[in-house]
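Sequence of SDR family oxidoreductase (Clostridium paridis).
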Amino acid sequence: MKTVIITGGNDGIGYYMVERFLSDGKNVAVLDLELNKISELKKKYPDSLVGFQCDIRDVAKLKNCISEVVQKFKTIDYAIHNACKCIFKGLEELAYEEYNEVFQVNYYGAINLTKEVLPYMKKQNFGKVFFTSSGVGVTGFTNISSYASSKGAIESLAKCMNIEYESSGISFHILHPPLTRTTSSEPLPVPKEFKADACKVGNGLAKNIDKNKFIICHSFSQALQTKMAYLFPIYIGRMMSKMTARANMKK
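Predicted 3D structure, token representation.
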């Protein structure tokens, strides 16, 4: 039975990924600031689901949590950094501390998780590490530079890690969900009809987790849109920003 560690799995896309992993017969360990939904889900999966209240920025706590996961489930087959922080402000409005806070969670959180799971994966000669990215990390978007920049950074990190660990049996991947209706995206001034359903996205990503691809999407149409974003990043970013502005003016 394979084991998944996921940060940010108590809500949104992460929660529905956890549900799908469990229904597929995987062991799952969730690391999050809150565990209310996971505690309820554990009633259905008492033996294959564990939750740890953990801030991804707290390396000492993270190390202890991962050690407990290995003691319980013996292996770490998948590690997913899904926790995120998003602040919707323009560059001049953002304090340095706010930029740093976003990067501490989104980028350094990915590094923290990776550094802690790698020793176990190297012993196994196998492991898959996933970072949840975003289309805005490729295309850019108005008033979201801290979040978008952090997502662009983890994409580069995944590419570098794939090269460094090419012969180790460990691979690195990017999860590319669309803009989705979640708690973190709620303040974003984008019409609801532009946002995908979190259950559908989470299920699709979990279902496709074993695909031998660097970029994992929840659906074929999202994979096509993601390819377009990589081909025409500036054009797509400007177009989406203008479409959002026009939609908000009509409200």
